[in-house]
Prior knowledge:
- The complex is a heterodimer.
- Chain A is an all-alpha fold.
- Chain A has three domains: 1-85, NADH-ubiquinone/plastoquinone oxidoreductase chain 6, subunit NuoJ (Four Helix Bundle (Hemerythrin (Met), subunit A), Up-down Bundle); 86-122; 125-168.
- Chain A has helices at residues 2-23, 27-47, 51-75, 80-83, 87-109, 116-119, 131-140, 144-165, 177-181, 185-188, 202-211.
- In chain A, helix 1 (2-23) runs antiparallel to helix 2.
- The radius of gyration of chain A is 33 Å and the shape is elongated.
- By secondary structure, chain B is an all-alpha fold.
- The longest helix of chain B has 32 residues, at 151-182.
- Chain B is 76% helix and 1% strand.
- Chain B starts with 9 loop residues before the first helix and ends with a helix.
- Chain B has 20 helices and two strands.
- The interface between A and B is medium-sized, with 24 and 34 residues.
Amino acid sequence: MYTTAIFYFFSAILVFAALRVITVRNPVHAALHLVLAFFTAAGLWMLLEAEFLAIVLVLVYVGAVMVLFLFVVMMLDINLDRLREGFWKYMPVAVLVSVLLMIEMALILGGRYFGLEVMGTPSPQPADYSNTRALGRLLYTDYVYAFELAAVILLVAIVAAIALALRRRKDSKFIDPAEQVKVKRDDRLRIVKMAAEKAPGAGIQDSAEKGA
Amino acid sequence: MSLQSFAPVLPEIFVLAMVSLILVVDAALDDGKRYITYTLSLVTLAGAAFLTLRDLSSAPGVVLHGLFIDDPLSDVLKLFVYLSTAAVMVYARAYLKARDLYRGEFFVLTLFAMLGMMVMVSASHFLSLYLGLELLSLSLYAMVALQRDSAVATEAAMKYFVLGALASGMLLYGMSMVYGVTGSLALGEIAQLLADGTDLRLPLVFGLVFIVAGLAFKLGAVPFHMWVPDVYHGAPTAMTLFIGSAPKIAAFGFVVRILGQGLESQVAEWRDMLVVLAVLSMAIGNIAAIAQSNIKRMLAYSTISHMGFMLLGILAGTQSGYGSAMFYVLVYALMSLGGFGMILLLSRAGFEADRLDDFRGLNRRSPWLAFIMLLLMFSMAGIPPTVGFYAKLSVLQAVIELGYVWLAVLAVLLSLVGAFYYLRVVKLMYFDTPHDPQPVAAGADARILMSVNGLAILALGILPQPLMAVCAHAIGASF
């Protein structure tokens, strides 16, 4: 009974916060509401006995990702009016489509197929059960391939971010004395051998003289 | 788990190790020494091909706790992925150099994308399928955006990214439904559980709809094709060449693994969905291509129609159907490499040969390249004796075996529509006068590869049997 009350309390806050994320005008407020949403979701996971995931969600998403996100939002000078251009024009169609989609999906799925009657209530784990250990064991044995792949994807993200964002300024007048000292003759002067050529423009006169 | 059980994964491990090495080596290189990166990348491909060839297995072997499968299908697809990636690197070199894109990131991202494709074609689990797809897609998004100063490239990358993310979301949602019904993510287990029948039919079909929609997005099948022309057009041509070739092979493997191996018992459900996708793709692809004046856009619409044609083979749901679709996609990759490669060959610094007008009078500028382009266009249109004809023929045979004669007739009619715009390119090359009569200035390596590419299309058209036998064997031994 007590947990049910907590569940509904958290769920209500979560739905409210999630709605606010997409409806508030100010992006900083939206980010803060997202923090609230993550935090409440972590509370829900705690109720599901997924303590490790709940703590990781708070640490990683609230602690690191969202703080970075806030920095980005504050540093970028986003012109909100331009972003919201055409918002009301597309609103009716968007609402119609999404409401229809939601109704259709609810009609098909409902609670009939994956509800408690079908799936059964999960039995609670004993007090000394550690889901951190269980997760770790799965992650580093059965799913080690997937784990490594996820790591490679992160590496791609790093490479891509650097490739797209690192821009060496070509117009910078900065001088590196170490580079200047190390310079060699060959870096500055290149001697090439080539066959003699007529100077452009001189050719016509030459042939004219010959003909004369 | 012994060391021996890692043997089937050796090509992937090797590629990953080499990419990491290239990443470190390239960071220390001057711009003038970029050829080291280039050589190392080609060495990586050769090494991976060697490891895959050494381990050509006859029976499927599932390792890494059911996440990875090593079977003839994956081996053959991987070999063709290596081949197309190598061709992309050779074709693209001069083009990239001229546009200040000849950087280590191109090679690293290409190889990462290739690693993603390798994971996709030898995945036997929803997790590895999805992760492979993301590895491929993320690398491709970044590659499209690599030309930062180009507004169209950035726009293309943005569209590709947003729609690709949406497609991934759909795919994941569908997969989660299948997981809800079966309680398993491994394709083999799902197939077994569903073969016995399930009382949760409705959510299963519901999930299937999302999976098919996600796959159609990734393939670029109508009505999920909106991104294809914009991305093909906007991306630097070297990236378009890559997107248009190897990933199609991987996408075939991806679709066959999910629909053919995991959800084969639901063939009656997904066949109807694929029929709709195939017919619409062939119709819209072929008709919209006629109106294009940009050859990259034209080839993008042609991709859409070819993917529709390939779906015809898959929707048969039989071994001969999968075999013919595999033959079709391998041949398509070959033709696509040639087609986009030709645009790269005709381009030079500061000039992009991406309009149809740029092919005007190619015969006078370079008769040999014009002849190769003629072969490519004939093959895409499906005119004998090029291999495109046999690819279409074998797919149509599979469809007729199924009893869908009307579908085969429709496919032939729509291909006839398509023949118009392919032949228009031939007409421009042979019967019009060039705007700019100077001969094509392309490097010897790219020219030789283009000749091999074009002649392969002719040779395979005269002798299609060996490749068809390879496809039939790969499918037969893996199902």
